[in-house]
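From the shared-data thread, chain only:
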Amino acid sequence: MPQRCPARHRRRRVAASLVGALASAACRDDTAPAPTPAALEVVEGDQQQAAVGTAVPIAPKVVARDAEGKVIAGVPIVFRLTIGEGATLRDSTATTGADGTARLGAWVLGPRVIPYYSVEACTRGAPAGRVVCRSFYAAAVPGPAAVIRVMNGDGRSALTGSRFALALAVEDRFGNAVCGNPLNLRPAPARPTVTLTPTQGDSAELDCFRELATLTWTLSHTPGPRSLTVRVGEASATLTATALLPPYTIEVLEGAGQRRLMLDTADGPAVRVMGTDGTPRAGVLVRFAIRAGEGRLVQPAELLLLGQRPDTALLVRTDAGGVARVSGWVLGPTPGAQTVVAEVEGLAPLAITATALGTLVPLRAVAISATHVTSCALDVGGQAYCWGDNIDGGLGAGIAEGAFQSGTRRASARPILVDAPPFAPAAMALASGPRTTCALDAAGVPWCWGRDLFDLTTTGAGRLLRPVAVRGGLPLATLAVGSRGACGLTRDGTGACWGADGALVGEGAGVSRRAPVPLANRPALTDVGAGCAVTSGQAVLCWGTIPDSGAPPPPNTVIRTVATPVPVLVATGTPVVRLAVGWTSFSPDVPQPTFGLTPDGRVAHWAGDGTRRGAVEDDLAGTPRFVSLAAGANRLACGLTADGTAYCRNVPALHGANDVGERWSRVAGEVRFRRLAAGGGHVCGIALDGVVWCWGSGDDAALGWGIERASATPRQVVLRVDP
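Structure, as tokens:
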């Protein structure tokens, strides 16, 4: 029979069984560690902005995932501050829920404005080396304005009508500047609401774009004490000042009550400044400014203060007799009362009024042209008008250069009659080069004025003060004028040129032609410019100084040129139906900037741009399709679309003086055009109703609206009808 164990052994077995059962139960304890996440991901709450001392709008939130990307529930997460003194956290420990996410209770930023505070979320209780963390960042911006401190300028005394600036520190409850954007945050914090309440008719402005705000306070002309209350948000401060009457007075001496024709130069205004003791005050600065009428002030260069140019305002110092004077006042194109004000610090502006007489009517034309500094138009009766600079007699009025004075220039800012019999309006043939203009009479004979490119004068003066007939050549139907010669087409399409340099008019170098002669080889042409033409086969011929043959040079290298008296084909690479030939800074030895129009209205250009040998289709983004082109100086060009909308490039008034403006820009306004002419820095056009408009540079009075002033939008060219 089997041997029985002693009783003590049986007790040991029972105890061992109990220990094993307890150990098994411990393995099944619900407090056992959860699976360790492989990654923590930011759900929301990163990259925020909040005011100092306040909680961020969205509390940071993370999601835990295992190696397979599945969310994990039950993962302990702890949030802790890593950057930003003074910040606090609420409910900084959490456990991921069924969706694997955990959120911080709240994150309150500290009192300092800094680029970022930081909070880090990490798993808790994971084995060493397997802790996973993610960071959250928030920028602290200033809180609401709590106090305004006046840094300087409070309680000052100043002359009535004067303006002065004060510095204000606008701060939140922690002392941070409320104004400005010191952290360069994007988007910038919202500007605080500012309310200014001056007394005594004063005005004020607060510049809150910098940390130290600038308050500009303008005193009225009422003397005595006054106050100004500044309120920024809920913070406010009251400042005081005293306005004092100046120790002098001002009176009108000359210029008031004049009655002159519009666009004429009236007597310049003059005032006298006297001290309260009755003696003249010398050296007082007087500001004269056009207040009404679009006029212009005139002052000789030797009397201008440093850096000034005559225009709508001038600064003049009183002389020993207390007198400040402007030399002239060009009345603007507005009938009736026109006003200049004289201003002296501390005194109310003094109005000086004149009356402008006459009536202005728009100039209507059938042809238009532009030189570098002059514009001309041919009206429906064949009469020519010109305006702008009279250099080389370019106005065609038979008067020497200095006879016209518009401001300080030898110019006429309004159209004047050209001293010649009527031309042929049906031909609509009027053309200009850099300083020369030509028109055709009814017999097809060119008449030219301005710089004499054709040896038409016997005096050797080199200028034609009035139109001179170019007789003895082929009768022409079209015209084009360049730097050293001119060309045109006969009615049967024959090209003919003339000028002082035969190489530039299609003949041998040194051969002078004083009348139009046929181009060599008599090609059949459909359009002609000064030095280039379009054949009946839509090819381009050029002569004179043209791009050399051979492969195009590398980018940004100067093109090679060659002088040829015989028209040669230019490798345009595309058919061309129309030409517009400009000029380059009066230099006939540089290839002319030439623009061509393809049959489908695209733009091609070659020569003169320094980088291309042949024509290249204009691939600038947004280039519209055109039906006609006009070219002027230095790659200035304009085009018309089928509906008469004008686009231009390289017009400083459109693009800015420091922008080369190679892009095509739509000319502002609702005017639609049928013809355009481009000059040195301006453009003129004939609208669909026949009215002439100009825009661009106005320094040479070439816009024709009566005042030497630039305009980015078209201005109507006007004729004055005197009473």
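Residues 433 and 481 are 5 Å apart (CA to CA).
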